[in-house]
Here is the input.
Amino acid sequence: MAGDSQQLSFQVALYVDQDTANENQIQISKAIAWSVQDGDVNLIDLITELGASLVSDSDNERARAAQLLGQAAEAVQLAPTQTAKLVNALLEVQITSLPQADRMMTLTILQNALQKHGKELVVTSEVDVLQGVIASIDGEKDPRCLMLSFQLAQQAIRIYEQAAPRVPAAQHSLDANKEELFDVVACYFPISFSPPPNNVHGITRQDLAAALQNALTCTPLFAPLFIPMLLEKLSSNLRQAKWDALVALTAAAEGYGPVALQPHLSTIWVAVRAELLAPAAPALLPADLASAQQAAERAGECLTGMITAQSRQGSDSLVKLVLADPQVCGDLLGCLSGVKQRGSQDPTLQVDTLTRVAAAVAAGSLLACQMTCKQLLPPLASAASEVLPPTQHQDHKLHETQQQLGLAVILTIVTAAVKTAGADVADQPEQYEGDPMAGTAAAVFEAVTGSRRLQDESSANPGGGGGGATIPGRQSNGDAEMRDSASWMQDNSSQQLAGKMPSPNGVEHTNGGDGSEEDAVQLLQLQVLTELVSFPAASSPLTSQELQDALSLVLGCLRGSSSNSNAAAVQAISALTRMAGAGHVKLLEQRALAPLLTSATETSSGREGPWRGGLPLQALAALATPASHLRQHILSSIQHLLPAMLADSISNEHNEKMTAAMLHVISHSLAPFGEEESAAAASIGLDLLTGVAQLTLAGQVAAEEVSMACAQAVQAAVAACDASQQAHICQIACTQLDQSCRQLPHASAPNSATHASSSLHRGITSPQNNPQHPLATPHSSEHVDSIAAQASAMPSSSGGDMVHDMHSEQQVSQLLAQSAVVSAAAVAALHAATVPHDMAMPLLECLVKLAMRLPEGSSQQACMVAAAAVVNKWPPGSVPLDDAIRQVLRFLAIPDLAQGAANPSGAWPDSGVRPRSFTCLANILKGTCMAGHEAGLPLIALPLSYLQGFGSQVSMSGSASANAADTAQQTPAVPTHASSPHQAALPSGYPAGSECCQAAAAVFELVPSTTAVGVLSLSKDLAHVIVKPLWQQRFYTAALQQLEKLLTETDSPASQTPDLQSSQGHRQKGRLLLALAYLLKGTPAKLSRADLPRLFRWLLKALEVLQQPGLCADKFVMAHLLELVRSVIEDPTGRDTVEPEVQRVISTLISLTCCKDSDLRQGSLQCLVAMMDLPYHLLHPSRKQVLAALASSVDDNKRRVRQEAVKCLKVWSST
Here is the structure.
């Protein structure tokens, strides 16, 4: 034993020595802890050894001793007697005088001791532990120690409270020390603490406030002390103190229980009521209204929390107290009846304030909700349904306002009831469970559905009905009712298309339509009806007949809404979706889907009359969400209607809009389709493919809107198909593309065209005729089988033509375009493994040929996107992608890279290249870059070579003549437009051949841009494309390097030949700068941001050059350049590049303040304002020049430009 004692003394001395390394300390503490745990060392002996160090004058030695003792105490399960000795030893020390580390360690030891042997300590300890805890935490200020102090106080009071009934000493100590303990802890309320900037310990004010609140509400013994304190804090002018008091009241109701709280309940309610009603106080200043409303909201949360806490403990005393208060329910009903408008000149504000109180009570529990509904809803329903014959217009107006307020109150209470019914009530007493609107829903329903306005909106059924006077069109026969509902919506529903409606969710309680009182009342009635049908089906307060009547009224509101009052229609759609979410699926299937489908798809045989089925269609889309049980039914119904709708859309405005809207719903609302819906998606895709083919065979041209929507729907549907379904669709789409390609007007390269057509024809041998064909896979459904058979029976490439020769060339182009856009959409959506390797090259050539020969518009853009998708998913085993791209370049009339895009003199050969050649090249380049193909990046040199060499050898007039002749030969009778959305149509005055330059430069925007171009998407979801990480970064870096190299060469003194110094050389640099501007516009900002300071001189040069006529046809490019320049000016890291160019920047911006486009004028003024952060000595020389230019800007014809000019004039005048 003597050896063990000597070893322990040595270890303790070594541990507390400040020269001992940290790693040695860790080893020593572990060894001592193991010895104590194994019983080799007694903890009391360890305390004896540490005695001198624990009271040492050295803070470092004392801290190490306390740390070692704490680690040893945590490692061993002490006996109660040992714990008592340890606690006695610690409490004899004046803990509050120790350093922070020592205090924290001592408090931790005390907390662990109380947690393990608290009950035994009350009996065996030689000192009063409760009194010792009070002395240990009194006056503590450190946040870490305060957290432990609050927890320690909570532990101590609870231990003594539990031991008091059987231990007289504990009862005596509790009676003597509880107030002192409360005072020691409550002096911190409310917590005032702001964490330091380097809050390494992570303690926040919220953490301290929560710990303090738990300590003060842990025992009912504190109720007589804490409740008066909280009520005093509620009257404080300090907002944080008031909010903390409200939160603490909720915790007190939970911690103290109803018995301890009962004596204080009346005073609590009076104090909370004052906060709740403060927004409607007559003496409240308007400036204080927002703060009062915020406090009232917190008070409402407090009231709800207190009611919830009491409800869990089986008490309803607070609910009865609130509902019996005449200042709440009495004043609320009095305001609505017009008898009393207590203390407020604005009844709306007072009613809103009182309604918050009722809603807070109803949200507390099921019982509170039942009591609130029972007391308030019957008189409110009576007031809302009362019809007074007005003697004067003013009286009628007052009645309208009161009725609107009454409905708003009903809506708020019913909304709270719906939330309460859907909440978790597992911990509610059994007698409180049930319907929160028991006995009151019928009165509310009658008040709403019996309204004259809702009856007017849903107009009576011509056939009459025996279901009651309040519900129009009610019949005993369900089918008759569905037909009547369909006729209601068909006659007068809104002209709004499905895709243009506001969201049905979150409708505010505001006026609908033109803002009249009647519209507001009708909207509120519909909102109340929506809440009534939103209760879960198992606990719905409405009977089955009332639910049917409600559904009829909702469908009637869809019929009655017009374009100037679609708020009611939006609410009606919300009601339908809420019914579906509540579980009323069977009712909707039986009585809503058929009328909605009939109304949304009602065709017109005439050529006149707009389509009015947008709202029912929007309702169907809302009901067909992925989680809806109605989705399959709706999807199947729409799929069966598509073929007839497509056929009826020809030359009929009504049917065109209906079909386009339905297709829009398929692609934007029903899509994406799930795996279990692949059969339905395949049917939709095949129906649309064959339907468009039949229209083309019949010589019928669908509207552009229908063709575009059809292509988007086909892509969305085909993207969801499985491999076998996509194989069938691929065969049909390739057949149609082959037929369209063969019948195009003869191209300038007939040999290539013939090769593409015949090769594609050889590659798409019919699977039905060749069982070994890779496409001959089993169908997934009978419907797919029948459609595929019909497609195979259509004229093939070996038989008749798709378009008869009797049509004009323009009509032939239109017919082939509508077939190509849908077929291209199907091809774009195929998986990578769907296209056989022997079909890839012919298919690519066919798509490129169609893109080059079809009329400008969605069809040629779709073919370009489909070609990009094909090269992106280029199948293994096909011809090398390099050879495929080389063949495509020949179709595009772009010189091959191997042959040199430009001849040795730098001139671009007159190959007959067209603007859309570069647009198609951009799509091919994008597809290859996205997949990371090595064949992609070398193509960047082609548009750059054209921009550099254009016009060097061939005169402008000659080039224009050649291009015009080529265009006329290739696409007769087709007007020339922009080749892509990135290329604006050129205004008059641009040099001949500039269209090709603009298209070549726009390549650098189209490739990296994430904005969809045309009707089809090149995304992973809809096109299954391969997207490599950082592909945009790689393209941007490669393109920027080449552009910077060319720009540097043209700017070097060695390259300043007489030709480059001429106007031709100036334009060559301008074209390269245009490509740079397009590149920066299309590249995501996060990729180019770091390069902007280095590129600043080129940005400035681009602004100087491109504002000259004939160089930039896209004003958005110039506007984006101005944004980039301003970002560099505002960025402190770019100042070093801006300051040397200040005079040049100012001159360029001044010249832009006089340009024709108002956006550019405004942008230049914003840049001038941003320059004010630059040093004064750099700006002052240009001050007069800027002020002179601003003199004309302040009189600009655009208000926003004038405002920016005034702001700019103000800052520049003060320099």
User: Anything to note?
Assistant: The mean pLDDT is 78. The chain has 56 helices and no strands.
